[in-house]
Amino acid sequence: MRDAPLALYRSPPQGRAGLVVTGFGKQHVTARIVDRRLPTHAAVFVEKGRGLLNTAKGGPQEIVGPCLFWLLADTPHGYGPLPGESWEERWALFTGTFVSDLMRMRLITETAPLVPIGNPRRMQQLFATLHSDFAEDSPLGLAAAAATLHQIVVEAARQATSPTATASDPEIEDAIDRLQRRAFEAVDLNAFARDLGVSPATLRRRFTAATGLPPKAFQLRLRIDHAKQLLTTTDLAIEAISTAVGIEDAFYFSRLFQHREQCSPSEFRRRHRRQ
Under CATH, which number does the domain 169-275 receive? Predict the structure, then answer.
């Protein structure tokens, strides 16, 4: 089932700020945007799909996912999938005086706004972290979101300059896909490693290199992220959500959630439920 669209916005602080995230979202896109200007800068991450991007200084460019592109404030642009096609995108809005420094260092380039992504897993991880940081809606959360956005800028620049060095490992990508499909099941990681033809230690090392997390922690992140989606989009009881994400003990689920999100599941629902 396709995730519901998400859009979160925060007002920028008064006065000058170096780097501030003001919006985050994800959505299923079927239509093109034509001749639009944004009041802030934007990063758009397309995991797969084909389309066209047209910016004032970059001109028309073909989009082939996975890729990321930059949209600069008050600059005419248009983009979207090819006719009859669609894609899933995640986006972030940002502003601040530090953006001019990023452009001066050519980490963001007006004439080359489109960046092919050789390792989408790393970018997926960063956008997931950005979502968690930004959703917190506290000074600490917004500071963390700005730091994560900076990592996205650096990672995009790294992948633009060294695509082969950042390319994903096909074998470990298969392991990641398998674990994602079984995210809400009890998984014996020793048996899982044997099925892949590697030792548990090798699986842990290569999995951590690809995702930044060992397999168990990766699985837990998937469970908690899905729980957050259910908390904000359904009226399911906490016990039902715990079961839905593969944790039979609702008290244990609440402890895990509290440790990871610094709030209880009920408090997260109150903070982020969209009416």
Answer: 1.10.10.60
